[in-house]
TrEMBL record:
Gene3D superfamilies: alpha/beta hydrolase. SUPFAM superfamilies: alpha/beta-Hydrolases. It comes from Glarea lozoyensis (strain ATCC 20868 / MF5171). One of its GO terms (molecular function) is hydrolase activity. Belongs to the AB hydrolase superfamily. MetX family. Residues 63-155 form the AB hydrolase-1 domain. It comes from the Eukaryota. Transmembrane segments: none annotated. InterPro entries: AB_hydrolase_1, AB_hydrolase_fold, HAT_MetX-like. Keywords: Hydrolase. This is Alpha/beta-Hydrolase.
């Protein structure tokens, strides 16, 4: 399994889909992990888990910006809680279309939900929010994309391929290179720790002044250990799905910009000034093609991690942005 030994699964439940149709055309039984908060409230928000989180380590906003909403956090396919290479034999490479389709079935058939007030996502969850807007325009009213994009940029793609290569092969070979027992040392954290924040963060020695590590190697070792219990096949499946992120794949002409132009709902994009994966410049380009889009820039040294909840000051600002956006008519 792809679950840390010290992980607290309180409140996590599962929904089984006996015959789920993957985007590849294959059918397979799948299990979707989720957690429901404030279920008595009428307005519903869905939060897909991001790339490095499980359900109970995903920031859910239930104590602040989303306190007045029924919040359902859904584990992304491949993260080890929902169906993944680590827990499902011959599991196919998932894509965002699969995540949205499986979550839609959970929400409509299990919860009997008629519409979503919003999909709020960070990183890979933010990319899923864009897919929701394109795939289910009559079901989702709005999206909040935090440190994410409608298309994984070529630069982002190459960063991810470098990460996958250090784990034993290109992300293109995800399912061929890793299997159910891919739990050995893989160095994923050592490769990603630099990209998660920013050069300014390291220049300020934030690993020492903020996190309390005496040396840089000590910080790197602890960061890498956070992924110790993650299954290599699951990590590679997530990396590959991230690489394939492109709402243009939903159109015959492959244009992600035209896909954005077709979105009829409201979209709030929150970008980190120092995000190495999802640059604010790319977000600005995407915003030009949204009918009802709004872009907020976080001035922060925390890079991509600014949207994860690790920096309290950044999260306070994000919460205010989300609350203001959802409060607009």
């Amino acid at each position: 399994m792809n679950i840390p030994e010290d992980y607290d699964p309180t409140g996590v439940q599962h929904y089984d889909i006996p015959s789920f149709l993957f985007n590849t055309g294959r059918r397979l039984p799948v299990r979707i992990a989720y957690r429901s908060f404030n279920s008595a409230l009428r307005r519903v928000v869905c939060i897909p888990t991001p790339e490095h989180s499980h359900i109970n380590t995903t920031y859910n906003y239930t104590l602040n910006a989303l306190r007045d909403y029924h919040v359902i956090v859904v584990a992304t396919l491949g993260n080890g809680e929902s169906s993944s290479p680590s827990n499902t034999l011959d599991f196919p490479q998932p894509v965002y279309q699969d995540c949205v389709s499986a979550s839609y079935e959970l929400l409509t058939k299990h919860f009997n939900i008629q519409d979503l007030e919003a999909v709020v996502g960070y990183g890979m969850g933010g990319q899923q929010a864009y897919y929701w807007m394109c795939m289910r325009p009559g079901f989702v009213k709005s999206a909040v994309v935090i440190c994410g994009s409608a298309r994984t940029s070529p630069f982002n793609h190459m960063l991810l391929d470098g990460i996958a290569a250090t784990m034993g092969g290109s992300a293109v070979d995800t399912m061929d290179k890793a299997g159910l027992n891919g739990t050995g040392p893989h160095g994923y954290g050592k490769v990603t720790c630099a990209w998660s924040t920013s050069s300014a963060w390291f220049k300020d020695e934030s690993f020492r002044t903020i996190l309390g590590h005496e040396t840089l190697p000590e910080f790197i070792e602890e960061y890498n250990n956070a992924f110790r219990d993650w299954n290599a096949a699951d990590l590679l499946a997530l990396v590959r799905m991230w690489q394939l992120g492109d709402v243009g794949a939903l159109r015959d002409d492959g244009s992600y910009l035209k896909a954005l132009e077709d979105i009829t709902g409201r979209v709030l994009v929150i970008a980190s000034r120092t995000d190495s994966y999802f640059s604010p410049e790319d977000s600005a380009i995407e915003l030009k093609h949204l009918k009802f889009g709004k872009l907020e820039i976080l001035e922060t040294i925390w890079g991509h991690a600014a949207g994860s909840g690790v920096c309290e000051e950044d999260m306070e600002r994000i919460c205010k942005m989300i609350a203001a956006f959802l409060g607009e008519k």
